[in-house]
Amino acid sequence: MNPVRIGNGCGFWGDSVDAPARLAAQGQLDYLTLEYLAELTMSILALQKQRDPQAGYASDFLEVLPTLLPYLPTLRIITNAGGMNPQGCARRVRALLDAAGLTGLRLGVVSGDDLLGQLDRHELRHLDTGEALASVRERVVSANVYLGSGPIVEALQRGAGIVLTGRVADACLTVAPAAFEHHWRWDDWDRLAGGTVAGHLLECGAQVTGGLWLHSEECDLADIGYPIATLAADGSCRISKPPGSGGAVNLETVAEQLLYEVGNPAAYLTPDVTADFTSVQLRQSGPDEVSVSAARGQPAPEMLKVSIAYRNGWAAAGTLVVPGPGATAKARRCGEIVQRRLQRIDALPEVFYVEVIGSGDTLPAGTVPIADPPEVLLRIYARDLHRAKVERFGRELAPLVTSGPPGITGYTSGRPVVREVFAYWPALVPRDAVTPQVEIL
């Protein structure tokens, strides 16, 4: 079978809106994936949907899709932009396609990951601590299980040119088209593991093509190319980027991404397979091309992971510029002043964190701090279950301009914005508790 070329033009909600069309134009792709979701993103989308039942999806996709219309229907798109509301997003997408004259292009919608209405049927416990969900149940805003590649494959089998999903495991956006094109069985563990490795390498977009690379100064990041995986039937692949684009694909960029966000590299768990990354072999097979092979797989876990988010108070962060001799000491004194003023009126938030950026506070432990930088940025973060305490904190930064040490500036952007905080609650549910659904529009 011919290898299938899969490119990823988006690594998170907020990534470059120009990258997908550039990759589609230059990459000679069979499939384009767009990965928008993270745990924080799901909780934000859940809150949006509570405010507006028609919202709750990654709205960037509606901005990107018109730029991709010239490449449809020969290019298939798979994306998890549906977020908390795949059907709502699908209605907008269908309208865009119809307005562009693509009435015959089938749109596949994958749902069934939202378990919010079923939480009380299960005795869910925190994956790390074992704590019962009951302790935060009243504050839960979202609960989404990570679906596997099967429903996406079904949508492709039913002729979908675009597949729009809610929460699926990130790598499945790549595994599914490879499994569909190469007719993999769901017990082809080594092939599924190979597809999972490819999907994991693609999922963060330009991180595998030079972004965050240890030696990124050696390449042009302004014109960085987004990644392409050319997947063979045996599960091996070649990672590359469009010819002439910036960035780099080499053993370092690929190895760095391979181990990114991996707990146990010998057992990387997905709904499709348990992949062994320690068996993977990397080889520089050409300019800006790395061959990836020898992935090994074992049966998929019996349980599926569910990502739960719950309301956990309010937070705000404010900054001020502190210049001149003794800037670090002045900034720390400012933090103490704010803290004492809040304590005096019994309004000190539960979390009150002061950092002096420029002095070494954000560097790894053991780093020798800069002795006396000419200027620093004071940043204070506050969080509390009570919004009033966080709002009161926000009123104490500007007064430092006239009632603090000399030289304080950078206050003209206004008081810190108070935002709601969501906490993450991972748990496991049995596979038979989840029923994926596939609809073709």
Account of the 3D structure:
The protein has helices at residues 19-26, 39-51, 60-68, 86-99, 150-157, 172-182, 189-202, 251-258, 327-344, 387-394, 400-403; strands spanning 4-8, 31-34, 76-79, 106-111, 140-145, 160-165, 228-231, 237-240, 268-269, 274-276, 281-286, 289-293, 296-298, 303-323, 351-357, 375-384, 419-430, 437-440. By secondary structure, it is of the alpha+beta class. The relative contact order is 0.14. The two termini are 30 Å apart. Helix 5 (150-157) packs across helix 6 (172-182) and helix 6 crosses helix 7. It has two domains: 4-112 and 147-301, no CATH class; 311-424, Alpha-Beta Plaits (2-Layer Sandwich). Strand 9 and strand 10 form a beta hairpin. The strands form three sheets. Strands 11-12-8-7-1-2-3-6-4-18 form a ten-stranded mixed β-sheet, with helices on both faces. Strands 5, 14, 15, 16 and 17 form a five-stranded antiparallel β-sheet that branches. It contains eleven helices and 18 strands. The mean pLDDT is 95. The longest helix has 18 residues, at 327-344.
> So how many helices?
11
- Domain count, please report it: 2
Helix content: 25-40%
Overall geometry comes to globular
Output the helix-strand order. EHEHHEHEEHEHHEEHEEEEEEHEEHHEE
Judged by helices, strands and strand pairing, the structural class is alpha+beta
Give the strand order, joined by hyphens, for the main sheet: 11-12-8-7-1-2-3-6-4-18
Query: Strand-residue fraction?
Result: 25-35%
Average pLDDT score: 95
Give me the count of strands: 18
- What is the alpha-carbon Rg in Å? 24 Å
First CA to last CA: what distance? 30 Å
Largest sheet: 10 strands, mixed
Uncertain residue ranges: none
